[in-house]
Amino acid sequence: MSDKALRLGTRRSKLAMAQSGQVAEAVRRVTGRPVELVEITTYGDTSREHLAQIGGTGVFVTALRDALLRGEVDFAVHSLKDLPTAQPGELVLAALPVREDPRDVLVARDALKFTDLPRGARIGTGSPRRMAQLNAYARAHGLDIETVPIRGNVDTRIRYVRDGELDAVVLAAAGLNRIGRIEEVTDFLSVDTVLPAPGQGALAIECAAQRADLIAALGELDDPFTRAAVTAERSLLAALEAGCSAPVGALADLLGDGQIVKEMRLRAVVGTTDGTRMVQLSTTGPVPQTHEGALALGSELAAEMLDQGAAGLMGERAH
């Protein structure tokens, strides 16, 4: 590889720029080459519609992938949960670095926790997955909440709380960590309460399939446990034929004692956004040693969920 600068394609949002900057620094370390950020505007950044209305899957991704395919950038950084589950043959996920905290978090007025919110509390989120699980939890525990659909970047969402329009908003811990605002969190939502989106907290570093030298270099940043976990989660999402805006939560945990990882547990949930009907299942087995093994773990659990009526809870199934 030459020593000329590598071009990293990134969305322009504050969060995307922060996480791309962190990846750029890591790539500089492993390649010894300078990395320059190339800012690209995606349809998801310019549209003000709710994600579920504009297709969810891929709206933050297509422009970055087009730039890769045209050779305008050498590699791109995505939030993995934004990526469609079908991978184009011309592109490869060269690295999935160590995953950040996958949990969802609450930023609420008066430093309130979720269970301390007042009756009728208005909670903002753009995610049908979060709405479904928050409403289900509230229903099961006698809480009275209203979930309110919102869009916008982190600043915009938190401002709804600061301005008194909403009592709380739900965000991803990973994003707040990456932009240095984790201290604004008032409650970390247990994954037993709200399962995250498949791949939440993980980044994907993507490049053209023919760039063998670059794939090998970027591969230094790959974390095999993160890859196995998110592959299982995304396989489940694909087998449910659900897009990334569908009300599907999934998390693969690594189980073990001390430093020895022994098993992987995959948990998943599908529900109606009002929280009245849910299908929630889990499976535990040996940590997959192959890509195919991780795919099988996800697809097998999805098949069980479909047997229990999961398809009917997702509204329009995204193909």
Count of separate DSSP helical elements: 9
Strand content: 25-35%
> What string, H for helix and E for strand, traces the elements in order?
EHEHHEEEEHEHEHEEHHEEEH
Radius of gyration: 19 Å
Q: Give the spatial strand order of the biggest sheet.
A: 2-1-3-10-4
- Please give the share of residues in helix: 25-40%
Distance between the termini: 39 Å
Taken from the alpha-carbon principal axes, the silhouette is globular
How is the main sheet built? Answer: 5 strands, mixed
Structural class: alpha/beta
Unreliable residue stretches: 50-57
Number of strands: 13
Mean pLDDT: 90
Would you mind describing this structure in some detail?
It is a single chain. Strand 11 (248-257) and strand 12 form a beta hairpin. The model is unreliable at 50-57 (pLDDT under 50). It contains 9 helices and 13 strands. The protein starts with 5 loop residues before the first strand and ends in a 12-residue tail after the last helix. The protein is globular. It is of the alpha/beta class. Strands 2-1-3-10-4 form a 5-stranded mixed β-sheet, with helices on both faces. The chain has a 5-stranded mixed β-sheet with strand order 7-6-8-5-9, with helices on both faces. The protein has helices spanning 14-31, 43-46, 62-69, 128-140, 154-162, 173-178, 212-218, 224-239, 291-307; strands at residues 6-11, 35-40, 75-79, 91-95, 104-108, 121-125, 145-149, 168-172, 187-188, 203-208, 248-257, 260-271, 278-286. Helix 8 (224-239) runs parallel beside helix 9.
